[in-house]
Design a protein that fits this description.
single chain, alpha/beta, 7-stranded mixed sheet, 2 domains, 15 helices, Aspartate Aminotransferase, domain 1, Aspartate Aminotransferase, domain 2, binds pyridoxal-5'-phosphate, globular
Length: 429
Amino acid sequence: MIYKRSSALFLEAEKVIPGGVNSPVRAFKGVGGTPIFVKKAKGAYLYDEDGNRLVDYINSWGPMILGHAYEPVVNAVTEKAKKGTSFGMPTEIETQIAQLAVSMVPNIDKIRFVNSGTEACMSAIRLARGFTGRDKIIKFAGCYHGHSDSFLIQAGSGASTFGTPNSPGVTKGTAKDTLLARYNDIDNVKALINANKNEIACVIIEPVAGNMGCIPPKNNFLKALKTLCEANNILLVFDEVMTGFRLAKGGAQELYNIDADIVCFGKVIGGGLPVGAFAARNEIMNHLAPLGPVYQAGTLSGNPLAMAAGLAMLNALNDDNEVFNRLADKTEYLHKGITKVLSKNKITHTINRVGSMISVHFDEAEVVDFETAAKGNNETFKKFFHGMLNEGVYIAPSSFETWFITDALSYEDLDFTISAVDSVAKNLL
Ligand SMILES: *Cc1c(COP(=O)(O)O)cnc(C)c1O
C-alpha cells in the first residue's frame, strides 16, 4: 500500500498541531510509521487520502456500531443543521433522547448530557463526592475514564501506550484522592476500603475493561464489588462509555444483571458526534444544579445536531431486537477464525471477547488485568499491525486497544480479515 499523500499531510499537520494529531493514540507512536489520513468512510470501510480501502475495526473507537455514514444518522443531522446548529436554550429533542435512554437502560431515572466521555466521568465523580460528602475514589489500573486529572493514574489506553501513566500537570493533591486497585481482584478492593474507612465516595470501573485490550470481569467480580460498595455506603460507578448501547440495550448493567449507582455514557450514544452523558436514580441526580448544589454545565451540552445523531442511533438500536446478537455472532466468528489461523501458524496468543469487543494478545497467559495485558509481545504486535494494514485491515495502532465490531461488517469482510491474519502470521515469527 502507498501512503504518499497521508505522509505529506502528516508533515503539514505536525507543524501546527502537537504531534500532528488531536488525540495522542492516533499518532502511531506505539507501532511506528505515519498515521493514515481518512478521506471518507462508508459502512465497514475507510477510504484514505491515497485511495486505499481499509476494513475498519476501530470505528471511531466505538461509536460507529452500525457502520460509517449510517443513513438515518446522516439524514437526522443534515435536517437538524438547516434549522440552526446551537441555541443554548432547551429543545424538545433533548427530552426525546433522554426518555429513550432512560427506557433502554435499567435502573436510571434521569440523565444529563455532556460533550464527551471525559466530561461524563469527571462529572459523575463530582456528583458521587457531592452526594456522599467524601473525597476519595477507587479506580482500577488499566481502566480509562477520560483525561480529567483524577483519572490519569495508570489510565490504560493511550496513556499506557506512551508509558506515562502519571501525567505531569496532575497535582499531588489530586492524585492522593485516587486509590488504585487491581482489576478482577476483589480482595485488593476490600483492603483499600478497609484502609480508608468512611473516606471513599465511589468505585469507578469499566464493567468490561476495554482500554487495556478487552478484559471481561471474572465470575462474580462485579457482584462482589456491588455488595462491598453497598456495605460501605460507597457509590458504584459504571463507566459504560465503551460498553453502553454496545453490549446490550442496557449495556453491561443488563448483560451482567448488576445495578450501578451512577452510569457514564459516550461513544455510541452520540452516533459519531461529540456526546457523553451520566445517569442515575432520582435521589442522586437531584443533587445536580440547578436542583441541587453540585455544579455542572456546558455551552454546547445537548447540542441539537449531537442529540439528533444520538437519537437516530439509539432508535435504530432500540428497534432492532437482533442487532446485539448479530454483533456477538460476528465477533465469535472472527474469534474462531483468527484462533484457527494463528494456531496453525504457531503464533503464541490469547484472545479476549465480550459481545462486539475483542482483542488479540501476543502472549499465552490469560489476560485478566493491567499487569497481564502489559506482558503481550509488543514487537510482534507492531509487525502484526503493519502487516494487517498492508493487507487492507485497520486495527487500533496500540496493543492496549479493543477491536470494535460493527454491524456493517459482512461475513465476507470477516473472511477477508481472517485470511489477512493468516498471511500476516506467516511472517510474524
Ligand atoms: C473513550 C472512553 C472515555 C473517554 O471518552 P472521550 O469521549 O474520549 O472523552 C471514558 N471512558 C471509557 C471507558 C472510554 O472508553
